[in-house]
Amino acid sequence: MDGEVELRVDGRRRRLRVDTRTTLLDALRDGLGATAPKKGCDHGQCGACTVLLDGRRAITCLALAVAHDGADVTTAAGFADGERLHPVQEAFLERDALQCGFCTPGQVCSAIGVLDEVAAGHPSAVTADLTGPVELTDDEIRERMSGNLCRCGAYVHIVAAVRDGAR
To answer: pTM for this structure?
Structure first.
């Protein structure tokens, strides 16, 4: 059975017809030609397909496209303002937080989502003081970014990039 879905992807309204079993990742990549979200594990374990969905981090390989009709989707390709990169993207470059680059779009989306969560005061499993503002420690960053895997092992650089992107 097919359904029609309208999404706002990286600021642009897009409409497409999809099988109701189509994941948001497949709709983005195959239906709309988006290349930033990657298909890694296709089981929600690696984070390569992470985007911001209505402003919150989402694993798109586990989300059905029809369940997100009307949603605002921001991929890593949607953060730059012309030639000017988002501060987190700049920090990833400066800190060499990418090696092969496969996981980078998901890492960037997750990092931007992490910074938004911290700014909103949302605690994590390792937040020390639940009554005060969340302090962005390296442990806090590692915990919040733990859903994004990097086979190249650039984790130290990724943590540093997230920290720098918060400034």
So the answer is: 0.96
